[in-house]
Each structure stands twice: as C-alpha cells, then as structure tokens.
Design a protein that fits this description.
Layout (H helix, E strand, L loop, with lengths): L1 H6 L8 H31 L3 H37 L3 H37 L3 H16 L2 H15 L4 H23 L9 H25 L15 H33 L3 H38 L2 H28 L1 H6 L5 H14 L3 H16 L3 H26 L2 H4 L2 H25 L6
Helix pairs in contact: 2-7, 2-10, 3-4, 3-5, 3-6, 3-9, 3-10, 4-5, 4-6, 4-9, 5-8, 6-8, 7-8, 9-10, 9-15, 10-11, 10-13, 10-14, 11-14, 14-15, 14-17, 15-17
Length: 455
C-alpha cells in the first residue's frame, strides 16, 4: 500500500506549473519571512550603535559558512532522496535520510568547537576597534556554540522537500522567524523585565527561533513524512551513502562557502576606507535577501522536481520545470532591481543610516542591484546542475564569479579609482556568470537531458 503511494508521487504526474507553484510557493513565503527577520535583526542592532551593526556585518561570513554547509549537505540529501524515490529504490532513500541527520550533528559539533575557540581571533584579524571586536566575539560564540538548530532544521526541511511536502517547511521556518522577530527587541533592549543584552540578545533570539523550528520540523517528519523512515535505532554511518551525498553537496558547500570568502575579502577592502563602508555592504546583504530569498525558495521547490523526473527519465518535465523557474526568477529580480533603483535612501534609513552612510550607500545600492538583472537566471541554472548530479558546474561558476572576478576587480578599482568604483565589481562578475552558466548548461543538456527517453 505504502509502495503504491510512492509510485504515484506528485512530482512525476502533476502538471509542471501547478507542481512548481505548489512546491515552491510555501518555500518562497517562508524565505520571505526569513529575510524579514534577518533585516529586523540588523535594524534593532543598528539602534545600539554603528559599531554594533558593523560587528554583526563582520560576523556574516561565519553565519554564511554554517548555512553553506547545512544547505549544501541538504542539496545532496534532497537531490539523492528524490532521485532514489524516482527510481523506486525506497530503502536506499531511507539510508540517505539517516546519514543526512548524522552529518548535520557532526557539522554542529565542528562549529561549536571553532566558535568557542576562534571567535576573538577572527574579529581581531579584521579590525583593531575593540568595541567591534567585543560585540562580534560575543555574537559569534553564541551562534556557533548553539548551532545545532540551524544544522538539523535545514536537514529535516530537506527531507520534507525531497518528498514534495514543502508546506510544512513554510510553517517551521515562518514560526522560527516570527519568534526571532518578537524576541529581538525584548532581549536586545531589555523589555518586560528582561536584562538588556544588546548584541548577545540578537544572537540568543536567533538561536531560540532556530531551535523551535528544529523541534517542529522533527515532529513533521515523524508525523507527516510517511515516505521516509528516519528512525536511527541501530544506525551506522554508511561511507558509500555519505560519499554520494557529498558528491552532490560538496560543490554546493564550496560554492556557498566561497561567498563567505568573498564577503570577508570585500570587508577587508572596504575597511581600508571606513567601517561605515563595511556597514553599508552588510546592510546590502540584509536588504538583498528580500529579493534573493524568494528565488532560493523557488529553487528548493524546483530541485526535487528536476531530480525526481531525471531519475524517472521524464525529459519534457525537466525542461518545462527549468523554463518556468527561470521565467519566475527573472521576474522577481526585476522587481527587486526597480525597488533598489527608486528608493535606496529609504531602505538605508531603516538602519538609522547617518549622512555619511547615506552618501556611501545610495550609489552603492544602485550599482550593486544592476547585478539582479542576471542573477535570477544564474541561480536557477546553478541549481539545475546540482539536481542532475553535476554540482561541480555550479562550483566552477561560483569560483569564477566570486574569487576570480569580484575580489580582484574590487581591489583593483579600490586602489586605482577609490571606493565609489568598488561596487561595480559585482555587476561585472554577474555578467561573466551568465555567459559561463549558459555554456555549461548547453553541455549538460546535450550529455544528460537530451538522451533521456520519454517514459
């Protein structure tokens, strides 16, 4: 009976527009809520001081690295489970799920140790401003030592995505984000009898939100996700399964980790001018999440559809999913571009921007947002590579964009022209990404998609 249900998984039979929307819309909404709490977090921190905002901005590469490892491993888990379900290899799909949970726990332990021991040195390397160092060290230690929430939350959410039950992820992520938003002002400013914790309060609010979301996603997997058996009794790590997960996931991990390196490098370049320039870059990353997060939600709905139908050999469904996803992503990005071009000052004032911050930030947001024109297409195509088991293609594009173009161009422009030209490195890199992504997609289409026989 259970096997019959699995054979009729909606990813192989529903019309693509209805399927993509039904799987992606809940994730897009939950990602928007996630973006909201990221922004609210920094809005409240900015009310402490610009140094506090800078400290949180400098901590972003570490947070991004944790998310990179959690989400990248999740990409491998998601794509592999969906593929094995498409191939009707149900017990192997269960093994992937259990090993994915094990990897989430192992990743948490590594970051807990690193956060406890290396936080102060990390900030001391970036600035000699002791206020920023102290704020940043406190923030980083809390989010690292208690990172079990983010790692296992993402893992359990990917298990739900791999079977098409994304509506529950909207509930878990939305609830965690709302709790974070509510707790932020209470813990940061010491409302309702709570002590004033400032930056530490922002970190604790984030951790509590993540732990609540983890608890809910664990419950939903046990109660609602009947297509997978994740009971860990008698579990032993399976080297072959883990290698398969990372064969898909490691390129994604490296790709997103490169983002941490890029942000760290850009922060060092911008600190040559002022801490305000670094704060502007940090604010940009918070604001752009409103544009990028819905596209990532679309991605999360698209990947299991492409992976499932690749496993099932449905060529037309794969291509239809890719075309529709690109169209939606580009549309979202164009809306984001319009907002950043028309009201950059209003966006910056959300963070109590000083006149100096506005002077730097308004042209910066307008220049950087030009990259949105190309970014939607590149994000979708990169995820197609991952869904088809060619995550290394995404890695190639990411390395070229962030390490070979953005940082060298930004540094050169900083040395030759000054701060106002540094921001142009990002649109230039995105144009190169479009060209490279297109060339690699033509190759994977020829080698993997076209040979499929329609079933």
């Amino acid at each position: 009976m259970e096997e019959t249900k699995l054979r009729e998984n909606k990813m192989g039979v529903l019309p693509i527009p209805k399927l993509l929307i039904s799987m992606s819309l809940p994730m897009m909404i939950s990602m928007l809520v996630q973006a909201l709490y990221n922004v609210v977090d920094s809005v409240f921190v900015a009310q402490i001081s610009e140094d506090a905002l800078t400290a949180v901005s400098l901590a972003f590469p570490v947070q991004n690295l944790m998310i990179a490892i959690a989400a990248g491993t999740g990409v491998g888990i998601n794509a592999l489970i969906s593929r094995y379900l498409g191939m009707k290899q149900f017990e192997t799909a269960n093994k992937v799920a259990r090993n994915g949970i094990f990897l989430g726990i192992a990743s948490f332990l590594v970051f807990a140790l690193l956060g406890a021991g290396a936080a102060h040195a990390f900030f001391g390397f970036q600035t000699d401003n002791q206020t920023i160092v102290n704020y940043g060290t406190t923030y980083m230690r809390i989010i690292s030592i208690f990172s079990i929430g983010i790692f296992l939350q993402v893992t359990f959410e990917r298990l739900m995505q791999s079977t098409g039950k994304t509506i529950y992820n909207m509930i878990t992520q939305g609830t965690g984000a709302i709790i974070n938003i509510v707790l932020d002002p209470i813990l940061i400013f010491g409302l309702f009898g709570f002590p004033r914790l400032e930056v530490a309060g922002a970190a604790i609010a984030t951790i509590i939100g993540q732990l609540v979301a983890l608890t809910m996603s664990f419950y939903f997997n046990h109660a609602k996700n009947k297509e997978l058996d994740i009971r860990m009794r008698g579990f032993r790590p399976d080297k072959q399964i883990i290698s398969q997960i990372y064969a898909i996931g490691v390129p994604s991990i490296i790709m997103q980790s490169i983002g941490s390196i890029m942000v760290f490098g850009m922060n060092k370049i911008l600190m040559m001018f002022s801490s305000t320039a670094t704060a502007v870059f940090g604010v940009y990353f918070k604001l752009q999440s409103f544009v990028f997060m819905p596209v990532f939600g679309l991605n999360n709905g698209m990947i299991p559809i492409v992976a499932y139908n690749y496993g099932a050999g449905h060529k037309k469904r794969i291509l239809d999913t890719i075309k529709l996803s690109v169209g939606i992503a580009v549309g979202i990005m164009l809306i984001g571009l319009l907002i950043f071009q028309l009201v950059p000052g209003e966006l910056l004032r959300l963070f109590d921007a000083s006149d100096h911050m506005l002077e730097i930030g308004i042209p910066a947001l307008r220049i950087i947002s030009l990259s949105f024109i190309f970014a939607g297409y590149c994000i979708i195509i990169g995820s197609v590579f991952q869904a088809l088991g060619n995550g290394v293609y995404s890695l190639i594009v990411s390395v070229a964009r962030q390490l070979l173009i953005i940082l060298p161009v930004a540094y050169t422009f900083a040395m030759v022209f000054g701060l106002h030209m540094v921001w142009w490195a990002i649109p230039i890199a995105e144009i190169a990404s479009v060209i490279l992504s297109t060339l690699l997609f033509k190759r994977i289409n020829r080698l993997k998609i076209k040979p499929l026989d329609e079933k």
